[in-house]
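Fold sample X.
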Amino acid sequence: MAEGGEGDSGLIVASVPEGQRKLMCIQYPGFVDNVDRAINSLGGMKSIEKVYYEKTHVLEARLRPEDRFCKPVVGRSLPVTNLLLALVSYYFTNGPWKMLWVRLGYDPRSTPDSKRYQCLDYRLPREIAAVSTLEARRSKLRKGLIYAGSKKQDEFQLSGDSVQLAEAVADSNAPETEACPVFIAHQLPTQRQVYYQLCDLRDESLQTLLHANDGREDECSEANGWCEEGVYDQLRKMLGEMVRRTAERVEEERDWLLQTIPAQARD
């Protein structure tokens, strides 16, 4: 059985079993003073469960079911991720841990070990951001190259060297599947503005700079957290140099690829 409960601001929270209990949230167009009556006005728990399993199903809240002239109000389901996070964590809006959720009871400003969780705002220079757009165009060319066993083979014939080149370029630039942004020296950032946690800067020289003051963190500052003053600027400079070298390599590979691909493959 699913269970209902009263939430704030006219929200009805219901958990629906599907292997394990899950939470869903329904926006109710009014103040909820009686949970059972509010659920009944939505058509009961079966109707709410239908919204959970069928995303196209629309809830109709009949606020006065006994009045046939009272038209129903449409309710909608809401994402509950932030609702759940707010129960177990709090959110930083600025400072070294900006845009991060932190577990309740844990204060990163009191523990030097939390330095690795600090956030770095990095923005691609304009000239390099233009190269990132070329990556998308090149991926389209790679897709045409590796289109094996399709009607495109009737339009043009590729040499074995061309296919091997395309596969090598694709393998060398294929981004890793990550739940959060991760900096890897030989890959371009996926966005023009990226928020990296310091632990996700996967380069030995960057990590050496970060941990240069390990054991000597005297205080947590509002601007730099547990890092030494000026470290953030040095990190951005080093990131910029690495990204620039990667962008130059990407352009060289692109030019090489364009020279190898037959003209009709680029159309």
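Fold sample Y, listed below.
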Amino acid sequence: MDQSYVRHLLPRLAQRTGIEKRVHAHALRHAFAVDLEREGAPLSTIRDLLGHSSAAVTDHYLR
């Protein structure tokens, strides 16, 4: 799957399931990071999984 396909797929799936809010891949990425943090994953692990250059970027991303 490439980015373009996912970008077009998510809104269609949201519409089919009755989700009225805008659904986009960035929201899924953010939710993934927040869930990792809630489960106690170290900031360095979240940083690495998201491909951020520094923990400061990841920390800002989670706020």
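Sample Y note: The chain has a mean pLDDT of 93.
Also: The longest helix spans residues 3-17.
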